Amino acid sequence: EYYFNNSALLIINFIVININCHYFCVFSEILKYIIIMDKKELQARTKKFHIDIIRLCNDFPRTASGFEIAKQILRSAGSVAANYRASSRAKSKADFINKIQIVIEEADESHYWLEIIEDAQIKPGAEAKRLMKEANELTAIFTATNKTAKLNYR
């Protein structure tokens, strides 16, 4: 399985919208430089997301809300990485789809908790914003994966 990075998706969308011979020739040249994310790279990315969340939580205030929010986001971010990893050992296509749907839910939940962290000013700043962006990107990647898997399952 391969996953296109954001630059690749933008270029592909541009080509599909503006398809003609000239753009196709340009596209074939650009394709040489597009980085494609494979399963191992995506596993590393989801693992890094979890580790980055752990590091973010280490600086939370030692309060009831700090502990509770840390517990929630640590679980959801960990579930993104663990369930994606488990999807590579799925017993069937239906099992794969189920695991990917869990990853989508957990990535979205991680984004929710990051919004709470930002809005409640538990740990405002650039790192929380970066992790929100990453959670959004992971949600988009796995949503696309889920759609493709469902189409191929039929």
Brief characterization of the structure:
The chain is mainly alpha-helical and 154 residues long.
What is the topological layout?
Layout: E1 2-4, H1 6-17, H2 21-31, E2 36-38, H3 39-58, H4 64-87, H5 93-119, H6 126-153
Helix pairs in contact: 1-2, 3-4, 3-6, 4-5, 5-6
Task: For this entry, give a set of tags.
4% strand; mainly alpha; 6 helices; single chain; 154 residues; two-stranded antiparallel sheet; 79% helix
Strand content: under 5%
State the order of secondary-structure elements, H for helix, E for strand: EHHEHHHH
Shape: elongated
Number of strands: 2
Major β-sheet annotation: 2 strands, antiparallel
The oligomeric state of the chains shown is single chain
For the biggest β-sheet, the strand order reads: 1-2
Helix fraction, binned, reads over 70%
What's the rounded overall pLDDT mean? 85
Number of alpha- plus pi-helical segments = 6
Which class of secondary structure composition applies to the elements?
mainly alpha
- The low-pLDDT segments are 28-35
Overall radius of gyration: 18 Å
- The end-to-end distance, rounded to whole angstroms, is 18 Å
